[in-house]
Amino acid sequence: MAAVTTAERPTITAKDFQGPVDPDWCPGCGDFGVLNSLKKTLAELGKAPHEVITVSGIGCSSNLPGFIHTYGMHTLHGRSIPVATGLQLANHDLTVVVTGGDGDGYGIGVGHLIHAMRRNVNLLYIVMNNEIYGLTTGQTSPTSLIGMQTKSNPEGNLDMPLNPLAMAISGGATWVGRGFSGEPKQLGQLMKAGMEHNGFSLLDVFSPCVTYNKDQTYPFFKERVKKLEDNGHDPSDWRQALEKAFTWSDEEIPIGLFFENRDRPALHETEPVLRKGGPLALRPLGISPKQGQALVDKLM
Amino acid sequence: MSQFDLKIAIGGAAGQGIASVGNILAWIFARRGLHVLAYNAYQSIIRGGHTYLTIRTSDDPVTTHGDTVDILICLNQDTIDRHLVNLRAGSFVIFDEDKIKPGDVPDGVQVCGLPVKDLAKNPTNKRLSNTIATGAALYLAGFDIDPLVDSLEKQFSRKGPEVVAENLGSAQAGFDFAREHFSPLAGEIPDKRPGLPVISGNDALAMGGAAAGVKFYCAYPMSPATGVLHWMARNGPDLGIVVRQVEDEIGVITMAIGAAHAGVRAMCATSGGGFALMTEGIGFAAMTETPIVVINVQRAGPSTGVPTKTEQGDLWQMLGASQGDFPRIIVAPTDIADCFTTIPEIFNVADKLQCPAMVLTDLLISEGTGTVDPGVFKWDQKIDRGELITTSNGSNGDGPYLRYKITDNGISPRAIPGLDGYIHVAASDEQDENSILISDEFTNPLKRQAMVEKRGRKMASAKAMIPAPQLEGSPDAGLTLLGWGSTKGVLREARALLEADGVAANHLQIKWMVPLHDEEIMAILSKSKKVFIIENNYSGQFARYLRSETSFMADGHIRKYDGEPLQPHHVVDGVKELLKGESTLYVPTHEIMV
Ligand SMILES: Cc1ncc(C[n+]2csc(CCOP(=O)(O)OP(=O)(O)O)c2C)c(N)n1
Ligand code: SF4
Ligand SMILES: [Mg+2]
User: Fold this and answer.
1) What is the reported pTM?
2) Would you tell me which residues 26-45 of chain B have a C-beta closer than 8 angstroms to some C-beta of chain A?
3) How many structural domains does chain A have?
């Protein structure tokens, strides 16, 4: 990978990230807003498409890597995070963006998520949270509210919704934010900050499913969301952040940057092999005969 | 057969120091240039229970822990109660006579009760009884004490001169006591030869990974595969191998696939239960055409099964791992040294074919420890990464880059992410040559068919990449002993014993399960009047697999599934029984209660 200096780079625009096929999402799906903001943010950060890899799981939202011109890996349902962790550790020069849905990340994949946060892997994880399983045509998700009627809970959901932000703040994530695809400007700012953050960034995004979720609609969020930055929130204070994470009412559902810890190094900076020597994937393979002989000597 | 062949067994409870007695003896033998093989029968507990370690040493390579015991060292009453009955005339039993009562002694067994209280040089050091017993055993085996002195000095020097002195004194006391009361076993100790390295199968797998250029290893602990993780964790940082413990085996395989996709050689190891969790990942590697090496060290299953016991019960799990129909590689190493050799071999195949590759081994050889020829450890391995693109001048040069380009051999050049000019998506969904999901357009049946065939075609070149199995013994023997994977050593010895008894047999051991050299195997088997398949499972997994690939039906089967490995006499007895023609199945009964 020849290093390209910023000076010789042609100016990059969102168009450079135009994917090979148009998204097959339902017209009006919140995920369009996420995709647009992502393309704009990457351009704003001056990333060249080949320096970025977009990794996803399975779901409507997880189809995103097919709709953007970057390297991509469209993985198994719920497994985007460990795949992305392996990718990031094997080549920490790549900009790793993980995209997916609430079912993918907070349901089947939640076990991996909590550990990736603990590890502070350097990546931005964007969860298009529509409080429903879209691709499988409308079942309850881990973030569906109590009482919500879905195809899998026609009598109404009984389970307490998972609180992804509170989980992330207490789980060790070093950057935790929430956006809304109906607020593209703030969403772009959050993506940019999350990508620039060195460590694990969780960006939960209200991304309405216009087809299957008749409760959490654009108007539902429009009426309730309040920007944290407008209310003097201090993201370095985890107590405040947790309090905001638990705030959910008809008057206020906070969006913005909840929590940030700039002091913790990312995993690839503490991992003994990766601390120096450049990306693993570009290093020569094998060990020297001298190293090998030393291993055999230990067996004698 | 070898001139010198000594078998020592040590039994006691977990935590009584059996391993250290075993290590000392193995080290003494290996340093003299004798071949050694140790097999430990134990349970999944940290303290207590019953542990029974067998060490066999010979001037010839040792391929199985064998049938008999010459010297039995009992560290507790339970051991003598269980194992004394199995001793033959002429053999020795050693124990602390202050604590252990032998009970009924079989005819001709020589009873070496040690007055430990009198012999121990420090009454408060409980472990000295082990040292005394080791000294006595060494005399009875016909060795002199010098190597034990060296070994104890090496082992205890860190604990200070007092501890060294009391161990040396106690070892000498045990040695002298045996000399005063017994004459050693007959059999001449071979001349000293250059020392040999001693290694476990798990360590050999890990070292093979290092030789193959593994740069990323991840795992979730699971017996009997954990040794690979421990070796990697100890040595990885010095060797430039990133080693990660992951939250579960689903995370393990997908993380390894992510690393492999980025361009490194990535490996992971587990046992059957962990492998079950990995299966969707195997299919993901197949679909994205990511080369990955996964090791399954079998324990006795199903479910959590018997964590510390061996079996060859996961063959069909490997054959059927993951939904869908796709090419895969499966190899079953045949001994400890082969654990090392196999890893660079299979990585080259996996890289060339861009598909999941699985190593199927078992507790018998992964936790078995023995000497190997130092020439096995080759560090200038040929690393063939196949059609991998790792540099870029800004474009593919040849029109748009097609990650899954349809080619005659099914192999498409694979670019690592980060290169200018090779942008693509690798997807779990079926995709076209240009990595666009087929279901994103309309599910074009012709495209789907073409992609299935492209992947499938890769197997056509696989057989030529690996050696066909070779027959041992005369092709005209008339009887073939057919085994796979870890049973090579026991079958080799069983064949020699059968020949000594006047039963002619040859032996074919299968290592590469997929692809299977069906034609070569059939050419060999068709020359035999009778073929007996011997395996460590209940339903004859290999026999069924061979039948499914070749329609071949064996004439007889020896199957063992009690958790303990086959011993040579189990095979010999089974062959003789099957030759009577009265039945087609022989199931040996394990005599040693461990
Ligand atoms: C192992 C496995 N189980 C189930 C599925 C089926 N499945 C596909 S997407 C999905 C849910 C997706 O929900 P979410 O992540 O919220 O994505 P959305 O479609 O809402 O964007 C499920 C259950 C699968 N692909 N794999
Ligand atoms: S089903 Fe819902 S989530 Fe899926 S594309 Fe349609 S609107 Fe979007
Ligand atoms: Mg959803």
Assistant:
1) 0.97
2) 30-31
3) 1
